[in-house]
Amino acid sequence: MENPVLKTISSQCFLGEGPLWIADLGCFFWVDIEKGNLHRYHLTSEKPEIRHFPHYLAVVLKGQNGKLILGLDRKLVWYDWETEEIEKLCEVETNQPLHRFNDGKVDFKGRIWIGTLSTKFTDRAGSLYRIDSKLKPEAQLNNLTIPNGMAWTTDGQTFYFIDTPTRKIQEFAFDAESGRIKFRRIAVEIPEDLGFPDGMCIDREGMLWVAHYGGSGVYRWNPKNGELLDNLELPVPHVTSCCFGGENLDVMLITTAQENMTESDLKKYPQSGDVFLVKMEVGGLETNRACF
């Protein structure tokens, strides 16, 4: 799909990631991990806002009582946008100062699933954690390098997960009550010429939309047979994540990055780091709220 962009938001993120739609507010959120910036964009008024944190800011999620949950370095915190108050919830890997959180999502039961990685991108140094209302992080997968995209099917029985360097989307059986996962198979293998799979979301038809880092777009994959169905082409190489939002959940917000680019690269692709809004023919699912 060529020229799909409805609007470009000039956010100029170094590493834009973690887009989130909160319907109650009519706002998209996303983070710039390296700069520690939290972006908020009101879809109707088109008003952009930024809050800065002196940390790696890996993820923003929807919490209870109107609060946001942020991943700061290796900590999860509550954040109140109005008062700017921060309250620590939990922390992982306290003995690994070079580690930080990466991508995170909330399942249908309100549990947070969030990965860690080494800021040196050490091979197999990261893990995927499940965090429920007891706030005791439990590792579900280990030996990960860059844990990234996550999505669940609407029946709650299947979990998809990406460890970026593998170029594979893994499929797990998911037990919604216990939160246990069991590896089933590789659902999709990404060809080398399409870059690396990064962030991901699922549409109402059960198809996966995957941001391709180094692949200049968001690609729609059928996880049932591994077939490539569509591609939203973008004028930047490093596409990092995507989510559905808007009143009918038919607007996709796509984040991008400037990292790993030379000055000449940035001149060639000046919109790198910006955020793109695309009107979609197929809509997505409601954002889950954490149980705390």
From TrEMBL:
Gene Ontology biological process terms in this record: L-ascorbic acid biosynthetic process
The keyword Magnesium belongs to this UniProt entry's keyword annotation: no
Binding site for a divalent metal cation: 17, 148, 198
Positions of the SMP-30/Gluconolactonase/LRE-like region domain: 15-258
UniProt KW keywords: Metal-binding, Zinc
Coiled-coil positions: none
Positions bound to substrate: 100, 102
Metal-binding keyword on record: yes
Residues of the active site: 198
Cofactors that this protein relies on: Zn(2+)
InterPro entries to which the protein is assigned, alphabetical: 6-blade_b-propeller_TolB-like (IPR011042), SGL (IPR013658), SMP-30 (IPR005511)
Pfam families: SGL
GO-annotated molecular function: calcium ion binding; gluconolactonase activity
Binding note for cofactor: Binds 1 divalent metal cation per subunit.
PANTHER family: REGUCALCIN (PTHR10907:SF47)
Similarity comment: Belongs to the SMP-30/CGR1 family.
Name of the protein described by the UniProt record: Sugar lactone lactonase YvrE
